[in-house]
Amino acid sequence: MASTRNSRPPVDLTARIFDCLRQFVRGSDRLVAALSGGVDSVLLLHVLLRLSGRHGFRLSALHVNHGISPNSDRWQGFCEQLCEAWGIRLDVKKVAVERDGEEGLEGAARRARYKAFAEADAEWLVLAHHRDDQAETLLLNLLRGTGVGGAAAMPVVRPFANRPGKGILRPLLNISREEIVDYARAEDLVWVEDESNVDPRYARNFLRHRIFPLLKERFAGCDAVMARAAAHFSECERLLEELARSDAAMVMHEGRIIASRLARLDGARARNLLRYVLRSEGFLQPDSVRLHEIVRQVCSAAPDRHLSFDLGERVLYRYRDEVWLIPHAETGSDTVWRGEARLKWGAAVLHFKTLAGAGISREKLVSNCVRISLRRGGERFQADGRRPRRELKKLLQEHAVPPWERNKMPLLWCGDNLVWVPGIGIDCAWQCAPGEPGIMPELEGLPPA
Questions:
Q1: What do you get for the CA distance between the two ends of the chain, in Å?
Q2: Would you tell me how many other CB atoms lie within 10 Å of the CB of residue 5?
Q3: How confident is the model over 24-65, as pLDDT tens digits?
Q4: How many helices (H) and strands (E) does the chain have?
């Protein structure tokens, strides 16, 4: 643990944090301070506690135990003791961090941490990122080839994706690490040191301990200059969002991009609109090369061509001149129906209702093995006795069944005969006669278009 008494703390630090809070926080709001136990978060909690009486907001803390360091439990214990001493309620979340994923340990820990943050019951989650963090984030993002959004680094305020009424607040972004440490020492605060913060194998630590000292030696005050540049990029990002909202009003219909309208935009504006839509849905952005290609194909492909692009959590489709974002869903596997009233099919459910004079002829249905399976291709079907048996593919197209549903829908077979197709109906040879006992299948819960 670290603590050193020094001179009186800078008098304007608390005032600067208060000025930030009063721009965004109402007196009745609940604030949850993320508390790691490090000097930044300890100082933040100390100042928020001091200001809560003046401002009137309700304050609690949240500690996320990643379980990565052998000292994780010790840090948790420190946070518990600190909050008990200061009279602050502390919630602790233990998370599992994937160690061998594509995003690396740092990225996986961040994702797990923010998932825990999203569960906090408050109007504001308050984070202790400061000016040096901002400069490091800007440089890291530039080295990754970021666009304007990444160059804007971390905003003072941003909403939580898909969590209306909840936001993230960073009131220390205009305060340097040196000022924070000076304040903490002057107030005789105690904190813990994370040994991983000096490990140069992590990209941020490499910049912090190897690169920034050289930059500061040659360019004095470069951290403040870079943080100021991030603020300029943030203004540009807001302007691009305004442009995207304006373009969305012309290009989108019922929440979906119309491809032919998107094609009328300049390429840069079309890509800006797609970035905005993906960001609004909470998706990670594809890299610039892939984004260019997605927009190019969506705008230039023939009208009858269906496109799909896997974006991770969802798939982007272009279908009938519209762009759809469809979540990945569990797909059912071939199974046998043994007369159950309810049968699980992946993320959906099949219901079998008993009727009289409607549905599939029960007598015919029990004459052979009844199975449920996915499309294989080449199926033929005759829903109307007045029309010939036709390819199922053409029937699905005529009934405007989207491609992503065609490959997930359950088909009901009796022996070698295709009997029922969701959204199209029952083969005419298997339909119930008047008054005859029948079975009517119904599909519930297939991911909506």
A1: 54
A2: 9
A3: 998 889 999 999 999 999 999 999 999 998 888 999 999 999
A4: 16, 22
